[in-house]
Amino acid sequence: MEWTADQTRALEILSGQNNVFLTGGAGTGKSTVISEFIRKQESVAVLASTGTAAILLGGRTLHSFFGLGIMEGGADAVVERALKHRGIVQRLRKTKTVLIDEISMIGSSELQCAEKIARKARANSAPWGGLRIVAIGDFAQLPPVVRSVPGQTETQRPWCFSSEVWRNTLFDPVVMKEIVRSRDSEWNRVLGEIRFGEIEEHSFSILQERVRPVGLQFEGTRLFARRNQVDSLNSDRLKMLPGAAREYPTVYMGNAQRLDELKRNAPIPEFLFLKEGALVMFRQNDPEYRFVNGTLGKIVKLKDHEVEVELFSGKTIEMKPATFSMLDAEGNVLASATNFPLNLAWACTIHKAQGATLDRVHADLNGVWEHGQSYVALSRVRSSEDLSLSGLSPRSFRLDPEVAGFYRSLRV
Question: What is the pTM of this model?
Fold first, then answer.
């Protein structure tokens, strides 16, 4: 494949020894760079912020790797428990590099606990006990989860970049700016303004031109903030197609105690119901680059062990089942789920769409409540021509002031 100048520079810096923070807007090719980095490295612990992200990445969660659990009992108790666990200590002593994906969703307390555990386990006073840290993510997208406080309407986000640990890690920042998802320069400019919450009048008018009603027959993906809206629309659309749905049950194997967790986090449902003509979304990146996570297509033919999908480009893909695995802290498979890597795609949550490239989108911004949600929704498409909207409001494009200040400090 052809690399952009940003991607080439990122790979050169990653090939060094310093700690690196790799960031950039949606569609700048961060995931491709990280996949290439992982492929070329040895002894890299690939970690993610959530179970879903870990399964898609083929890695582990930061919480399991460092023994954070659910942070019960407070920071001191978490560190003490982890250091009593021989497996955690031995794992940290033999690891050379830790890669943390979706760093924006890791809170400051989790990052500080992980660093302290690494430092004490390795008996090394250097930050992270001398581990090399590679962090990837965009703080202008989805933030860490905050527990609500009674009587408090707005809770300050525990951004990890505001912690002492972040400062002491001395990251080399790598900011990727060239968008590879879209070649529409005007749309890229609009997205850049939305990302930093500074949308100009002309850009807002471009979005207003995309506001239009769509019917139930819309042939694309509708993005909603709420899961119940997604399930309802996908079910209704499948019923509209003729004939009975064919059921493909997901095959699960492994640790029985982990299966419930895997079912919650795997990108494939427990039972996949399909009909010929159904709109589907691919939920993994193809090593042969025929499709990516988020590519849309229609079911052409259903077989026992194969599904034919016609992409919007007109190309037909013969799909085989794929396996998604949940790993323990050592990288061993605890449980696995095998089925076609497809979801019904008439609707999807904004959260699940993060990282995906979608061919045609109608984004319902009425239910948006979180900083960065609108940016995640709008940046899924390659061009404004692939987008329609409902519920547009200037309030939809808020950015946390801390995030804005952080990126200004990086001279983005």
Answer: 0.80
